[in-house]
């Protein structure tokens, strides 16, 4: 039985939400699966990815082949690196402590990058909001600067027009 790690689509039309699953390669896209490994929500920025790292590594070691998108997600979360490091431990190239140190250093660096992106997005959103507020203030000041026509002047200007309409109707 060939096992694939792939995405299983959920959510409504236009708002996809995916489960990351280990499934038999012959099963349907949204069909039966062997194990749910996590979730992937691309609707947010940055995308929300929750992954059972140890479960994914176990499936990879047992020969499961990830699809292209699943491979990118597993790589992003560090499952591919952890699998690679555990292969090095089995071959004797690394000790468990060295592998754990490398993985922790990579995870810290990755978390810093994700936080930097989230902070950058929050700052960009705050800047856009500030610009919109400034533009609104400028529009409001322009409205205030325009002289307001007195109601009496408007009434006087309308009165002759009303008299002309009344005289036209009488004829």
Task: Give an account of the 3D structure.
- The protein is an alpha+beta fold and 171 residues long.
- The chain has two domains: 3-78, 2-Layer Sandwich (S16 Ribosomal Protein, Chain: A); 95-171.
- The chain has helices spanning 53-61, 68-77, 79-91, 96-145, 151-170, and strands at 3-12, 15-24, 35-41, 48-51, 65-66.
- Strand 1 and strand 2 (15-24) form a beta hairpin.
- It is elongated and about 100 Å long.
Short description:
This protein is an alpha+beta fold. The chain has five helices and five strands; from the N terminus they run ββββαβαααα.
Features:
171 residues, alpha+beta, S16 Ribosomal Protein, Chain: A, 2 domains, 5-stranded mixed sheet, 5 helices, 5 strands, 19% strand, elongated
Could you give the topology of this structure?
Elements: E1 3-12, E2 15-24, E3 35-41, E4 48-51, H1 53-61, E5 65-66, H2 68-77, H3 79-91, H4 96-145, H5 151-170
Parallel strand pairs: 1-5
Antiparallel strand pairs: 1-2, 2-3, 3-4
Helix pairs in contact: 1-3
Based on DSSP secondary structure assignment, what is the total number of beta strands? Answer: 5
What's the helix count? 5
The order of strands across the largest sheet is: 4-3-2-1-5
Q: How many separate domains make up the residues?
A: 2
Mean pLDDT: 85
| Order of helix and strand elements from N to C terminus | EEEEHEHHHH
Classify the secondary structure makeup into a structural class.
alpha+beta
Q: Uncertain spans, ≥5 residues at pLDDT below 50?
A: none
As a percent range, the share of strand residues is 15-25%
């Amino acid at each position: 039985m060939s096992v694939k790690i792939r995405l299983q689509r959920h959510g409504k039309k236009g708002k996809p939400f995916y489960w990351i699953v280990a499934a038999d390669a012959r099963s349907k896209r949204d069909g039966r699966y062997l194990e749910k490994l996590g979730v992937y929500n691309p609707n947010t920025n940055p995308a929300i990815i929750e992954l059972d790292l140890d479960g994914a590594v176990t499936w990879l070691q047992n020969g499961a082949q990830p699809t292209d998108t699943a491979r990118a997600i597993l790589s992003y979360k560090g499952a591919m690196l952890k699998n690679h490091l555990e292969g090095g431990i089995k071959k004797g190239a690394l000790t468990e402590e060295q592998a754990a140190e490398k993985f922790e250093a990579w995870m810290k660096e990755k978390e810093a990058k994700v936080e930097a992106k989230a902070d950058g997005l929050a700052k960009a959103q705050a800047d856009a909001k500030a610009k919109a507020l400034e533009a609104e203030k400028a529009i409001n000041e322009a409205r205030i600067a325009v002289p307001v026509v007195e109601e009496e002047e408007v009434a006087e200007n309308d009165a002759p027009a009303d008299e002309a309409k009344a005289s036209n109707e009488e004829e």
